[in-house]
Design brief:
This protein is an alpha+beta fold. Helices cover 18% and strands 31% of the residues. The strands form two sheets. A seven-stranded mixed beta sheet has the order 1-2-3-9-6-8-7, covered by helices on one side. α1 packs across α2. The longest helix has 18 residues. It is globular. 22% of the residues are buried.
Length: 183
């Protein structure tokens, strides 16, 4: 077959890590960035938010008996963090309606640097955080905050997720960075 009659390869929407031809557009921190395919059309929307403060993992539910009935509740520390995170997400994203399709979530939790690892003259890069809270509990708290903020209809829509735990670099404050990709 010559070059003029060869069929065009089929283009399917792929995530950024799978296709080097995708570029992130946008530029405004308040508007979602559309992922753009080679043809220029949007194939996904990317939203990013940074939640300031120390990352908190989802605590174990507490049970109490009231009037002969068992009542389950979320620990106060977890409930406060989820409410704060949900409000931060609402303020930064201002979602009109919750996403109802499949979503991909990426979470980077950055913990404060211990005093024993702080130096005045040596470089202080990030390093992996090994310890509590567990990554799965951080994921649960973030997904619940996304649902409370109205960013997603239900956290069961998450079909792919990635979580990282780091100790902050010398000049960095603790925070949780969340990226939500909507297909």
């Amino acid at each position: 077959m010559n070059e003029e009659t060869s069929p065009e390869p089929e283009q399917t929407p792929l995530l950024p890590r799978q296709s080097p031809g995708l570029e992130v557009g946008g530029g405004s921190p308040f508007l979602p960035d559309p992922l753009v395919g080679r043809d220029g059309g949007p194939i996904a929307t990317v939203r990013r938010v940074t939640i300031p403060g120390e990352p908190i993992g989802k605590g174990r539910p507490r049970a109490s008996v009231i009037g002969g009935h068992v009542r389950m509740r979320t620990p106060v520390k977890t409930a406060r963090w989820e409410a704060f995170a949900a409000e931060t997400i609402r303020l930064q994203w201002r979602p009109v309606e919750p996403e109802r399709g499949p979503v991909c979530v990426s979470i980077v939790a950055v913990f404060s640097r211990p005093k024993s690892k702080t130096w005045k003259t040596k470089p202080m890069p990030r390093y992996p955080h090994v310890g509590r809270p567990d990554a799965d509990n951080i994921i649960k708290a973030v997904c619940d905050a996304l649902e409370k903020a109205g960013a997603v209809h239900n956290d069961s829509q998450v079909w792919s997720l990635r979580a990282e735990k780091w100790v902050a670099a010398g000049d960095e404050q603790p925070h949780v960075a969340v990226t939500l990709t909507c297909a």
